[in-house]
Amino acid sequence: MDTRAKWLSLLLATALLAVAQAACAAEPPPADPDAKCLKCHSKKLKKMLGDGETMFLQINGEEFGQSVHSVIGCTGCHRDVAKSKHPSRAPVASRREYSLKHNQTCSQCHAAKQAEYQDSVHARMVAGGSDTAPLCSDCHSSHSIQARAAYEPVSGEPCSTCHQEIYQAYEQSVHGQARSKGNVIREAHVRAPICSDCHQAHQTTAVAASGYLRDTCLDCHDGAAVAHEQWLPNAGMHLTSVACAACHSPMAERRVDLQLYDNLEQAPVSQQSETGAPFEQQLNAIDPAGDGLDPVELWKLVRQGSRDGQPVDVTLRGRLEVTTGVDAHRIAPSTEAVRSCESCHQGGAEGFENVTVSISRPDGRKERFEADQKVLNSVVSVDSVGDFYLPGGTRIRLLDGLLLLALVGGLAVPVGHMALGRIIRRKKGKQ
Amino acid sequence: MTTIEMTRMEWTTTAMNQEHIQPRHERVYLHPLPVRIWHWLNALGFLVLIVTGFQIRYVDLMGLMSFETAVQLHNWVGLAVVANWFLWFIYYLFSERATNYHPDLNPKSFFQRYFLQAVYYGWGYFHGAERPHKVRPSDKFNPLQKLTYQFIMFISAPLTFLTGLMMWDVQRFQGLIDLAGGLRVVNTVHVVMFILFVMFVLVHVYMGFLGKKPSSHYKEMVTGYEEPHE
User: Where in A272-354 does DSSP place strands (E)?
Assistant: First the structure.
């Protein structure tokens, strides 16, 4: 190729490149849909709600950009927003109603978590009409959703938002202390639990109503059952009938809860549905004075459950537990746990001064009703409180009387016989 | 003439003629060695079980030992007494002396003799009357003793062992406990038996002094031979 041809080819290539560059520069860059939303929602928009409150519609674009949901953008969740219908003029009754409406949105991506949540005490409370039970956005926030790792530090968030007192108790506990000191207990490196380790993050259970929590304790303290067997008679029964916190939260106030249990259903008796007579009515009929169930009233309650025409076989399942959820979280180091048997196994022990009878609420939590402490010591309770007995602690008073009678009688026989002999001998002497 | 009057007359006559009764020189071997070993082991066991039983039940009133020690002692000694009961049972099962525990097949005669024995303790004993029951190796218990020991050994002791065993390991025996009507029923039976044992031991120890001499029955339970009735 001669020099002229080379120059022509170079000129042509340069021209083509220039045309191509011009063509590219003419095409506009792809639009950011979130930017479109934020164009309005970065401003102080607000909406008046049906309950008179104001809902602010301003979104912090920077925070949203840092959230894990920034990758799916606004329409990832707000799929119902159509350009033609937005902004919507539809009235919104309250913030709660708005949140409830959007609670299902999460399940579009997080179906498994949503299913767990639906089985939780929180969801059951929501279903029961609670205005305070948490929805997804109450724990995860609406637009500043963080990765799971962000919840790891001992911040208590989000649980402490509602359970502040409990969280403070946890902070002071052996678990909270270990967590705050870098997971160290007695110079051993352990992973001390945070809220979700015991209560689960989404399938949050009403722990006091089940044996779930005990099993959770034993999940980490896998040697505990065997360790208790080394020194504690009937260790298995103790682990079933005594809440872990009743001994391991030594400063806690304790009580005995007698839970009504349906033997046929193999489940705790629950509050009757709207069609049946509420449990409270049944209770009021048995205890019209409302001064707490006495032994006879408790017996009637258990018997009534068995005789109202339905095939039910009701018993009471007793359990020693701490009085408040706050106390349940004040777990002390094991060296400070209650180890003295006498703290329970004696007449007038503190734990037996408070007695409640409970049924299961639809949300899984317990509904408790006061009972007279005499129900633990009455001979009438032999049947109704048949499975809860502590030697010494809940002894039957009538048997104390019989024992005293036996002692007196046992001593009266020799004394009486000797006295009789003396009288006869004296009489014979006179003759 | 009523039975009581007849009995009184008979004993008065016996007492008056007592000096003519020939002393028995032949000593009767009443309590074979296995029975004596069983008896004294049982006595020791009962004593420990009663003391620890009181301690377990009345921690707020007694402080002989800790609750934990009392429970451990009660459990182990209880198991030893159960084993001891089986030794007694097996011995009598294969011994011709088992007749001591055989029930009287004539209830009318039995209760007449039962009544005579009771009257003896309340009247004849103080008048030096002869014992209405003639002790023999094959029939060493008077009707009062026989009924008491039958109840103790065949009803009271097994019931106490069974209920004690259930409470010793509640979870292992949960099925049996449910069958019995619950832990509280089981405990109530155990405590009622405990009450009976307490009364029995008190009366038993006193009755032991009602031999010819106060020490006679105690010596018999050591040597095995009936003490001479001079």
Answer: 314-322
Query: CA of A392, closest CA in chain B: separation in Å?
Result: 4
pLDDT per residue as tens digits for the range A149-161: 776 656 778 888 8
Percent of chain A with pLDDT over 90: 31
Partners of B58 on chain A (C-beta within 8 Å) are 347, 392
What's residue B35's pLDDT? 94
Check if the beta carbon of residue A359 is closer than 8 Å to that of residue A271.
Answer: yes
Question: What number is the ipTM of this complex?
Answer: 0.84
Cross-chain CB nearest to B59 (options A342, A379, A385): A342
Measured over all CA atoms, what is the biggest interatomic distance in chain B, rounded to whole angstroms?
Answer: 66
- A23-66: per-residue pLDDT in tens? 444 444 445 778 888 888 888 888 889 888 888 888 888 888 88
- The Cα–Cα gap between A59 and A46 comes to 11
Report all structural domains of chain B as residue ranges with CATH numbers, in order of start: 29-223 (1.20.950.20)
pLDDT score for A277: 58
Which residues from chain A sit within 8 angstroms of residue B206, using beta carbons? 413-414, 417
Token reading at B11: 């004993």
Which of B68, B72, B184 lies at the smallest CB-CB distance from A386?
A: B184
Q: For residue range B41-79, what is the model confidence (pLDDT) as tens digits?
A: 999 999 999 999 999 999 999 999 999 999 999 999 999
- Tell the residue number behind the tokens 């016996």, with chain if given: B14
Angle in degrees, 0-180, between the axes of helices B33-57 and B216-223, rounded to the nearest 10: 120
Question: In 10 A of CB B83, how many CB atoms?
Answer: 11
Subunit contact A409:B199, Cβ cutoff 8 A: yes
**Furthest C-alpha separation in chain A:** 172
Q: Give the chain A residue whose CA is nearest to the CA of B126.
A: A421
Which of A329, A334, A331, A337 is closest to A168 using CA atoms? A329
What's the average model confidence in pLDDT over B153-163? 96
Q: Burial letters for A311-349: b for 16+ Cβ neighbours within 10 Å, e otherwise?
A: ebebbbbbbbbbbeebbbbbbbeeeebbeebbbbbbbeb
Give the residue from A302, A297, A277, A299 showing the smallest Cα distance to A286.
A297
